[in-house]
Design goal:
Blueprint: H1 2-7, E1 12-20, H2 29-44, E2 51-55, E3 61-66, E4 72-78, E5 86-91, E6 94-99, H3 108-120, H4 127-146, E7 150-151
Parallel strand pairs: 1-4
Antiparallel strand pairs: 1-5, 2-3, 2-7, 3-4, 5-6
Helix pairs in contact: 2-4
Length: 157
């Protein structure tokens, strides 16, 4: 629904997302916790992310994603407080601010999608939509360790 509403607003200028993300976790840090925000933001940007950069705070951090069309997006990566997933999208003709409501059963949508794919042999996902978020997460991990902006590799197959 969010993407449908966005089509009326023209080119996306910025996406600001907020959610829980313990980048220092022993379970995988930004790659494990950040996928939810990164996947959503990359989709809202039409898969256009050229660079990623993470600024570290004591417990809370920000990730910045840069797009070839000039869009700059911020991911608020919080370990403190009640941080429901939230997104703000600023576009040429307006903005959308929305808390992302979780499914009653958080895995049900994914299971239904997989079952449909197995049953029909078809999926709405492409190689790009599956691998771009992973490439962005990898660039974010490198940014954390190298303390600089990192180029996101272009996915081509």
């Amino acid at each position: 629904q969010l993407q449908k509403n966005l089509k009326k607003l023209g080119r996306v200028i910025s996406v600001i997302s907020t959610g829980p993300c313990d980048i220092r976790s022993k379970y995988g840090g930004v790659t494990f916790y950040g996928i939810h925000q990164v996947d959503m933001v990359v989709r809202l940007l039409g898969q256009d992310v050229t660079h990623a950069e993470v600024a570290l705070g004591k417990k809370n951090h920000t990730g910045t994603l840069y797009s070839s069309n000039g869009a700059i997006s911020t991911l608020n990566l919080f370990t403190e407080g009640q941080t429901a997933f939230h997104v703000s999208v600023i576009a040429e003709k307006g903005r959308i601010d929305q808390t992302i409501v979780r499914d009653e059963s958080p895995y049900l949508s994914g299971v239904k999608s997989f079952c449909s794919m197995f049953r029909t042999g078809k999926t709405a996902e492409t190689t790009e939509t599956m691998l771009n978020p992973v490439a962005v997460l990898e660039a974010m991990e490198k940014s954390i360790s190298q303390k600089k902006r990192i180029k996101v590799p272009k996915i081509t197959l």
